[in-house]
Amino acid sequence: MSVALKMIGIALLDATDVLGALLGVLYLAGLWKLLEKSGVKGWWALIPGARDYQLARCAGREPEGRVFSVSGVVMLVIELLFVLLGNSKAATIEEIANQVLVLTVLLIAVLFVRWIYMLRVFAGLLNVYNLRKRWLWLVLASYTRWLPMLLWGFGKKYQPEWKLEDIKAELARLATHGSATVMDEGLTVNLEERSATEFFQKKVLLRDIHMTIPQGRMVLLLGGSGAGKTTYLNAINGYEKAKAEVMLNGSNMYTQYKKMQYEVGFVPQSEMMRGKDTVLNTLLDAAKLRLPRDVGARQRRERVDEVMEIFGLKPVRHNLVDKLSGGQKKRLSISMEFISNPSLFILDEPDSGLDGVMARELFVQLRKIADTGKIVIVITHTPDRVIDLFDDVIVLAKDSSRTGRLAFYGSIEQAREFFQRDRMEQIVKSVNRKEEGGDGLADEFVMKYAEVQYG
User: What percentage of the chain reaches a pLDDT higher than 90?
Assistant: First the structure.
């Protein structure tokens, strides 16, 4: 009787394995057709790891796809380690038990991460195919996941709202025309491409950004998270070179970098100051670093006094940095970069952590700097409280291929008319992706601006 039960159990396990393999084949068949519908080669469905990444691209969830893909590969490795451990004859039973415990804990953790990111990818897929969220219930278990994949892949009524390759080609076609005419005075940016290698492939971070900014302008830089704002600023100031021509007052930022490094001031979001130094010593040290070597000690001290006067730091010049208020620290951080009297002044969230009154005072000071003939470019996440102080706005947006593109550049009033929105925060919302709480109109505005600029 016990032998018969054992044989029945083995048969059931074998049948389960056969059923699992059959359902896996059905899932891959549906995935093959679904990838083709979205403009991706269907054979990617046969490659473990890569198929998860390609599915995420079709769902508009490429960043999530990287984690989803890697987790799948890690699971395969863990399963292989279990097999090797089972065949190991050298280890003791206690050693094997400990190793099994470690692998089991690791497997559970990876399974949890994979499950979370799988749901994010499939949620994006539902948006692309305009399907209801109740489909997610079938995705939760591996024994039912094949059904929606098979239906979406082979069903003629299930069609994606966009094809990955078609949208990329259309966006590239619209933005390959023209460039900005180089000005003798002011900033000219002709950025063709800024790319990096990510996840074993070339990733284009920014593309086709052309503009001229005259002297004496205070410019707001807008864009959602990941739109490439900081990357764009780093490309402008020469910190991260792109395939681009960046000209400031007739000089090339890349080929004449040593000369131009004193012409650009960049204030990052994080403050890099020693708390135990005084304000005066902090600025004197900054002067040694940021002023040309032929500038003498007396001239450096005069410049430091001048900058402290501009930013209202003279009363606290002997105070330790640690004892300054938040607003004073911000002004000191800006003063350190302003020491070199740059023609282009770039600030990344200078009002971070400041209340409305202190932020207003800071931006008024920046407005005064722009009025002296400087170009001031600012990133801020609360633009509407100081929007009256700005001349122009740059709007960057991620297109459907997750590349930062120029969605608009012009005056504040022109931006309101172009986007049909009164507030800058509403403009950012309009170009943000839907899964980020936005309206998902980035492609539409990128195309619209390209057509306006280049026909």
Answer: 15
**Residue range 120-132, pLDDT digits in tens:** 999 888 988 888 8
Supply the pLDDT for residue 418: 94
User: Are residues 79 and 147 located together in one domain of the fold?
Assistant: yes
Q: 80 pLDDT band (50/70/90 cuts)?
A: confident
In angstroms, rounded to a whole number, what is the distance separating the alpha carbons of residues 324 and 336?
15
CB count, 10 Å around CB of 282? 22
CB 352 within 8 A of CB 333: no
Does the residue 96 lie in any domain?
yes
Residues 214, 133 within the same domain: no
Q: What is d(CA 304, CA 289) in angstroms, rounded to the nearest whole number?
A: 13
Q: How confident is the model at residue 9 (pLDDT cuts 50, 70, 90)?
A: very low
Contact 369, 362 (CB under 8 A): no
Is 295 within a domain?
no
- What is the structure's pLDDT at 1? 47
Return d(Cα 434, Cα 442) in angstroms, integer.
Answer: 10
Q: What whole-number distance in Å separates Cα of residue 290 and Cα of residue 335?
A: 11
What is the predicted pLDDT for the residue at 409?
94
Exposure of 413 by Cβ count < 10 A (0-12 exposed, 13-18 middle, 19+ buried)? exposed
Q: What is the pLDDT of residues 40-62, one digit of tens each?
A: 888 998 988 888 988 988 888 87
User: What is the pLDDT, as a whole number, of residue 166?
Assistant: 63
Boundary of a domain, candidates 113, 130, 161: 161
The answer on 130 and 52 residing in a single domain is: yes
Q: Residue 137 corresponds to which amino acid?
A: W
pTM of the model: 0.69
Same domain, 29 and 85: yes
Alpha-carbon gap, residue 299 to 293, rounded angstroms: 11
pLDDT in tens, 208-261: 889 999 999 999 999 877 888 988 998 888 788 888 888 888 888 888 877 787
Report the alpha-carbon distance of residue 311 to residue 164 in Å, rounded: 50
The reply to whether 75 and 198 lie within a common domain is: no
Categorize the per-residue pLDDT at 375 as very low, low, confident or very high, splitting at 50, 70 and 90: very high
Which of 311, 334, 349 lies closest to 230 in space, CA to CA? Answer: 349
Token pair 């070339």 in the structure block, residue: 202
Range of the domain at 14: 2-161
In a domain, 409, yes or no: yes
Characterize 317-347 residue by residue with b for buried, 16 or more Cβ atoms within 10 angstroms of its Cβ, and e for exposed.
Answer: eeeebeebeebbbbbbbbbbbbbbbbbbbbb
- List for the chain the helix, strand, coil content (%; round to 5): 55, 15, 30
- Residue bearing tokens 């980020």: 436
Distance CA 175, CA 329 (A): 42
Residue 327, in any domain of the structure:
no
Residue type present at position 318: H
Residue 434 is classified by DSSP as G
